[in-house]
Amino acid sequence: MSDSTESKSTDINKDSGEKRVGVFVCECGVNIGGVVNTKAVAEYIGTLPGVKVTSVNKFTCSDSGQADIQNKIKEHNLNRVVVAACSPKTHEPTFRACIEQMGLNQYFLEFVNIRDHCSWIHMWEKEKATEKAKDLIRMGVERAKLLEPLQASEVPVTDKALVVGAGVAGMQAALDLADMGFQVYLVEKEPSIGGRMARFDKVFPTNDCSICILGPKMVEVARNKNIKIMSYSEVKAVDGYVGNFNVKVEHKPRYLDVTKCTGCAKCSEVCPVEVPYDFNEGFGTRKAIYVPFPQAVPLRAVLDKENCISCKACAKACQSGAINYDMQPGFTDLNVGVIIGAVGFKTYDPEPRHDFGYGLYDNVITAMEFERLLNAAGPTGGHVVRPSDCKEPIRVGFVNCVGSRDKATNIYCSGVCCMYTIKNAQLLKEKRPETDHTIMYMDIRTPFRGYEESYNRSRNLGVKFLRGRPSEVKEDPVTKNIKVRVEDTLANEIRNLEFDLLVLATGIVPHEGINQIQQLLKLSKAADGLLMEAHPKLRPVDTTIDGVFLAGVASGPKDIPYAVSQGSACASRATILLKNKKAITEGITAVVNPDVCAGCGVCLPMCPFQAIKMDETPYLNTGIKKANVVKALCKGCGTCVTACPTGALEQSHFKNEQVLAQVKNVFKFQEVVA
Amino acid sequence: MSAEAAAPKGNGWEPNILAFCCNWCSYAGADLAGVSRFQYPPTVKVLRVMCSSRVEPAFIIKALKDGADGVLVAGCHIGDCHYIDGNRNAEVRINNTKKALAKLGFDKRLRLEWISASEGLRFSEVIRDFTEEIKKLGQNPVKEVKK
After folding, report:
1. What is the pLDDT of residues B110-128, one digit of tens each?
2. To probe the interface with B, which of A122, A644, A659, A671 has the most B CB atoms within 10 Å?
3. Do A123 and B39 touch (CB under 8 A)?
4. CB of B50 less than 8 A from some CB of A
5. A241/A589 Cα distance (integer angstroms)
């Protein structure tokens, strides 16, 4: 610790006086050396003004290569280092650390890519590649001479966390963080926590009862002293930055006092209003005042004001006097260090496009509807019936990839539909062996433990698999049976099939709230409309916003084990910040020169992170309020810098003169005319 | 190189293109072209900026004035910007710069492309295509004047 403090304090000193550049050309085995004549390159670069030493290494990133850099820094008293090697994406951190050990500011390194951008792509043009390498390194040397020292700054981190979304991923994140001793606020927009998993009947591949395994977890969340559940609440505003987010949460009125309500549901019994029950995918009804579902946490009623007719029957029935018709939305302001977004998804709605007759024919239903029909606590007590006549179907057809892998809807694979269709067919077949099941698929995808086994179990049970996508779906006007014309692409024949019930395996799509969350947390969206992680492989739960993490389907289709793992992963990633109580922020930021700033404010709307604020008081005696960059918020993109009409804004490490030094040195041409 | 650049239009002349690539998508796309060994002509030199929106019109003008035959600005696809919507700002700026350059007949020498980190092949194709286009346009006339 003392070492690094010491080295940091000497950083600035190393910048004084003459710029002494050392250039280290890497051969990367034969990757560079086999194409680029590194010796000739080093010789040429050695002639450039300011270059005190050049060196060619077989592998500059190796211990001996790094030792060479460090020795030469000492020997030649270098204060700028140019490494010409692979991509800065791979080894910039390596060499930054290498020169920092020698007391140089880490930003005094300039990394030139002569492998990915030169030797690898000009493999058959060795001479031209050598010339290009010279040009690229010359650009780097000129830029290096203008590099300025930067300090990554530290910000304190509030050791509290906000988890948005209390599905299984969010709950897992909250539980893990709470168990590590951190205060967690768990915000859920629905009246109960539990998310989509609470609605599933059984879950693949082991077919355990979904609510039986989720219910105890929900109770555990409620019981945990460190978790504050904010159900029926939504995040309305987020301000601040890593370690110090200020969040405004709105609590939607339940029109009853949750501290008095016991969840006895006496109010529901007397309520005369019946509306389609959303928890059962619109099958059956619920009352205008209702307990969301029997295992709800918190087990409290909620009044649906839109459908309430104000008859006040519930108020009379409520023995604890909890009902309050005049309840207003409440607000809570939170200060948290990290935010975990586990905002979930919805299933694809086939209604607008009438995919496979959905919405036109009664007996075409979605898999979620089928799921509720299968459920013992569902609208039919677990009897799968078809909507047209409430008879139990014998011939059941399943269509896979509805709203997935389809250019007309979504091109991506939702990942879970094959498995839940296999499971659904199994469950009904086990319940009623006389039923006959046909799954019409494009491909069956069963990765991960136990999935292929589950598929085999379905086959053994007699579930038929037909590779083909229905080309025509019609309803028999008399029997209301569904007639499907489908090409069996394995048997190479057209089949005309008749089903009593057709179930659509609808895919995963973003829900309506995702845009709001995206804007509040300033995240990006991927091509599938779901939120984007920082890196698809190496930083799968981080986002480009420091201190914000993503778990579950919010960042791409996932099954339950994957979502749970991500919840835990988020908690673990967040703990790094929460436990250290500090965060390191980007050294490359925009900087305002108040002497030049005219206070016009052009830069303010340019910033995608709202990192620029106008000062509240005028600067010195100018009478002008100047722009000010909040360093912890600035991500260093430089868009404001380009917009600034006066040149008061500069992007550190990418200052105009630094970029122009490269531009000027792209072509030797100008030297010829000079 | 210098001899080549100063050589008259015709045999052996190869364009000189400067490519501003954003750190997150296009620079990584150029890296992927390398990793995948997608060969393209050594006409282009990549200059890394954090975001395509950092590219000032002044940088482009300076490059053209100094004899660049073409300038490419490459960023993340719209909607994929690492900085949310920096590339939209870049789009406006580059289009305006193009309009200004059109008056000098230089507009075709400036190109804006969206190249993602997964589009190594596209990166090499863009470079090949732009190189061909510049070859048709011929050398940057500034060079002749300067001579």
Report:
1. 999 999 888 899 999 999 9
2. A659
3. yes
4. yes
5. 14
Say if residues A14 and A77 touch (Cβ distance below 8 Å). Answer: no
Is the CB of residue B19 less than 8 Å away from at least one CB of chain A?
no
**Neighbouring residues of B4: CB distance < 8 A, sequence distance ≥ 6:** B12, B13, B14
Cβ-Cβ contacts under 8 Å for B145 (sequence gap 6 or more): none
Closest residue to B2, CB basis, from A88, A136, A669: A669
Record: contact B59-A654, CB cut-off 8 A: no
Q: How many helices (H) and strands (E) does chain B have?
A: 6, 4
Contact A132 B54 (CB under 8 A): no
- Which DSSP category does A648 fall into? -
What six digits make up the tokens of A298?
Answer: 């918190």
In this prediction the ipTM stands at 0.92
Does B147 contact A136 at a Cβ distance shorter than 8 Å?
A: no
Smallest Cβ–Cβ distance between B5 and the set A524, A525, A669 belongs to A669
Q: How far apart are CA A328 and CA A291, in angstroms?
A: 20
Q: How far is B101 from chain A (nearest CA, A)?
A: 18
Interface contact B65, partner A, CB < 8 A: no
- Determine, for residues B56 and A669 on separate chains, whether the beta-carbon distance falls below 8 Å: no
**CB within 8 A of A138, min separation 6: which ones?**
A45, A48, A665
Q: Cα(first)–Cα(last) distance of chain A, in Å?
A: 50
* CA pair distance B29, B35, nearest whole angstrom: 10
Residue A329 near residue A253 (C-beta atoms within 8 A):
yes
**Residues of chain A contacting B124 with CB distance shorter than 8 Å:** 121
The DSSP result for A370-396, as a single string, is HHHHHSTTSTTTT----TTT-PPPSEE
Return phi, psi of residue A394, to 5°: -100, -50
Helices A210-223 & A168-179, crossing angle to 10 degrees? 40
Is the CB of residue A386 less than 8 Å from the CB of residue A501?
yes
Q: Which DSSP letter does residue A356 get?
A: G
CB–CB of A134 and B1 under 8 A? Answer: yes
Instruction: Kindly report the average pLDDT of chain A as a whole number.
Output: 93
d(CA A373, CA A385): 7
Q: How far is CA B49 from CA A140, A659, B28, B107, in A?
A: 13, 8, 12, 22
Is A116 in contact with B34 (Cβ distance < 8 A)? yes
High-pLDDT (> 90) share of chain B, %: 73
Element spanning A396, H or E: strand A395-402
- The candidate with the shortest Cα–Cα distance to A464, out of A431, A425, A493, is A425
Per-10-residue mean pLDDT for chain A, 674 residues long? 41 68 96 96 96 96 96 96 94 94 95 97 95 96 95 91 98 98 98 96 95 96 98 95 95 95 95 95 95 95 95 95 96 98 97 96 97 94 96 97 96 96 97 97 96 97 97 97 97 97 97 91 83 85 92 96 98 97 88 95 92 92 91 89 95 95 79 41
Inter-chain residue contact B49 with A638, CB threshold 8 Å? yes
* Distance (Å, whole) CA A566 – CA A305: 36
Q: In terms of CA atoms, which chain A residue is nearest residue B51?
A: A637
Residues of A in Cβ contact (< 8 Å) with B2: 668-669, 671-672
DSSP H helices in A346-416: 367-374
Please count the helices (runs of H) and the strands (runs of E) in chain A.
Answer: 18, 34
Name the residue in chain B with its Cα closest to that of A523: B84
Among chain B residues, CA nearest to A652 = B50
- Could you tell me the two tokens for A338? 């990290």
The radius of gyration of chain A's CA atoms, rounded to the nearest angstrom, is 32
DSSP annotation of A123 reads T
- Listed residue (A416, A214, A177) closest to A296, CA to CA: A214
Q: What DSSP letter does each residue of A264-291 carry, written as one string?
A: --HHHHH---EEE-GGGTT-SEEESEE-
* Closest partner CB to A89 (pick from B16, B31, B39): B31
